[in-house]
Amino acid sequence: MTITTASPLASIARPRRRASMRQWTGILYVAPAMALVIVFFVVPLIFTVWMSLHNWPLIGQPSWIGLGNYTRMFSDARFFSALGFTAYYTVIATIAIFALAFPLALFVERQRTGVGFYRTVFFMPVVVGLATASLLWVWLANVDAGVFSSILRWFGITGRAANILATFDSAFALIIVMVVWKIVGFTMIILLTGLQAIPADLTEAARIDGANAWQRFTKLTLPLMRRTLALAFILSITGSVLAFDQFYIMTSGGPQNRMISVVYYIFNQSFVSFQLGYGSALSIALLGILVTLSVVQLRLLRVGDER
Amino acid sequence: MSDAKCGMRLQNVRKDFGKVPIIHGVDLEISEGDFVVFVGPSGCGKSTLLRMIAGLEEVTDGSIEIGGREVTDLDPSLRGIAMVFQSYALYPHMSVRDNLGFGLSMANVPKDEIARHVAEAARILKLDALLDRRPGQLSGGQRQRVAIGRAIVRKPEVFLFDEPLSNLDAELRVSMRIEIARLHKELGNTMIYVTHDQTEAMTLADKIVVLREGRIEQVGSPREVYENPDNTFVAGFIGSPRMNLLNGTIAGKTIDIAGSTILAHAHSLEGHSAVIVGLRPEHLEVVTAEPCTLAATVDFSEYLGGIGYLYCQLADGQTVTVEQREGEDYKAGDRISLSWRPEKLRLFSADGARIRP
Ligand SMILES: Nc1ncnc2c1ncn2[C@@H]1O[C@H](COP(=O)(O)OP(=O)(O)OP(=O)(O)O)[C@@H](O)[C@H]1O
Ligand SMILES: [Mg+2]
Q: How many CB pairs under 8 A join A and B?
């Protein structure tokens, strides 16, 4: 009796054990990655949320204030002006980067002599750290020792030594130029991979179909690069929204404090004013904004429904 | 279609890639409505030649005329051609309908007219049910039909095909081949077709162009290139299994092949000391030993049902393939004698050129 009931059970149990074995192996494989994500993203995130619900001075006891930090945000004019400036910077920087990266990608896509050289040259600034690049450009823009000032004077654009970083518009323009110089090679490489993924046959078929270069670009290249474009846009926009180094190093927040980006503002709140709780709340808000922006972009570029 | 006589004319067409010459002066005339097939070994320049006709590849030298019009430096879209690619090259982000109509919309044809042309092409190729799908949602055969449909919609004077069926499985190839033949009959256009496949070449072509290393070796009807090859290359390339090409030496008025003496029949051997004898496997017959037959030893035999092949060796190691429709079975090591009807023998000089009777 016991034997007859035991044998069917055993035959069921064996495959189940094998399935659970396989599950454990799977978990084992993803464990290192999971550990990294948990230690360096999930735990800090939870801790930041926790901090954001407190009044958390650098020294002294934190006190629970619930959503106080979040409600405070909505009446914080400086936060909104930081948001406004960041948005302005993001739009201008992204447009500038793409306006240059696309032609460059098209240029280095063709097999031409020296194409490897051009790719390397355009990509080189990418490997320089942003802070280092900022310092370099501050020096280049220096009133007395800088190169730009002498060049401007040489061409008669300015009469005397010009301080580019002294007014908002010229300082902003300089930062945009610096960022484009620094980032454009990276965006170019991303776009290049997208361009190269388009089979030559398609372009040739379109040529036979009578599409001119512009039509081929708009009707073939762009739609076929949707995923690549989404990636490039998200990286570029995220990078711009998180901009900090260049404003901190090059203009220290700019003439009349007009160059305070959101991250800069968070930095000020946290480590200058020591309001760590409020800084955390701002960080969470920024995270929310970035996630929303990315989701909207993926939707707009309809990544996912293809083929 | 002003000049009804001339579908296409290539004059001394050359192509260099960098410093490397790939096409060495091709002259070719194609009459309107002909189905012309380019065949040749891989890398011989078939695609390059086709792409030059399409205008996708620049011509280094020479001229191309289509329908009596010089098009050598004309944009591909203005040449009156349409091309079907091996990879289909359908626009993946467009519906079948938009794929078919793309060329017309680029030419600013009114929408209702595009719809009419698309509907007609869809009817010819039985694509009606698929018009709203994306290429990714189609089978290989359906994609190929869409690619052909896109060519039809352009109403070209000349259709160009670059190995259009090589991505399809064997069964589909046969049915698409028949469909292309039907299309040619129905539309009556000039068609140029590149292929590796002997069956496709023989069944579809009005005219076969055999290419080797950027040169035309022979142009002729399937029957001509098969039965009357101009040289050993064409003789060996067309036909499967390939023609036996046997080295022989001249001994007076006869030819000596590995110790067997055979007759040259109507051919004149004057001025030659060595020749190449061409005999197709299906023209060889196993006979009882007698003078003027070829002595061979069976290496191994294959029975395919209906026909069989004997792979034999001559005394000097040259190999001969024999097709057998009936008769007894032979085993490895059997000594046999081979004979043929005199008119089936093809003779070539030692450098490969045909010696005609
Ligand atoms: N863009 C190119 N640059 C340099 N050489 C090329 C180029 N395209 C083709 N070739 C060379 O030209 C020769 C002919 O190529 P082609 O593609 O015309 O051959 P094919 O006859 O179509 O061969 P297959 O049957 O394999 O398709 C080859 O030796 C190839 O290496
Ligand atoms: Mg080819």
A: 64
A70/B143 Cα distance (integer angstroms): 56
Question: Are B125 and B150 contacting, i.e. CB atoms less than 8 angstroms apart?
Answer: no
pLDDT at B146 (0 to 100): 94
**Is the pLDDT at B248 greater than 80, yes or no?**
yes
Q: Which residues of B touch A215 (CB under 8 A)?
A: 106
The alpha-carbon gap from B61 to the nearest alpha carbon of chain A, in Å, equals 22
Average pLDDT over residues B145-152: 93
Q: Which ligand is nearest to the CA of B45?
A: 1
Reported as a single tens digit per residue, the pLDDT across A63-116 is 999 899 999 999 999 999 999 999 999 999 999 999 999 999 999 988 888 888
Q: Parse chain A into domains and list their residue ranges.
A: 2-37, 77-300
pTM, entire model: 0.81
Phi, psi of B11 (to 5 degrees): -125, 115
Q: Which residue's structure tokens are 């240059």?
A: A100
Phi, psi of A251 (to 5 degrees): -125, 0
Interface test with A, best of B17, B48, B79, B87 (most A CBs within 10 A): B87
CATH 3.90.1150.200 is right for the domain spanning A77-300: no
Tokens of A179: 């960022």
List the domains of chain B with CATH numbers.
Answer: 6-233 (3.40.50.300), 241-355 (2.40.50.140)
Instruction: List C-alpha distances in Å: A91 to A96, A238, B258.
Output: 8, 11, 85
Classify the phi-psi angles of B352: left when phi > 0, otherwise alpha if psi is within -120 to 50, otherwise beta: left
How far is the alpha carbon of B93 from chain A, nearest alpha carbon, in Å? 7
Q: For chain B, what is the radius of gyration of the CA atoms?
A: 25
Ligand 1 site, residue B214, Cβ cutoff 6 A? no
- Residue B316 has what pLDDT? 92
ipTM for the predicted complex comes to 0.84
- The token pair that represents B69 in the structure block: 């019009």
Give the mutation candidate from B58, B91, B133 for the A interface (greatest A CB count, under 10 A): B91
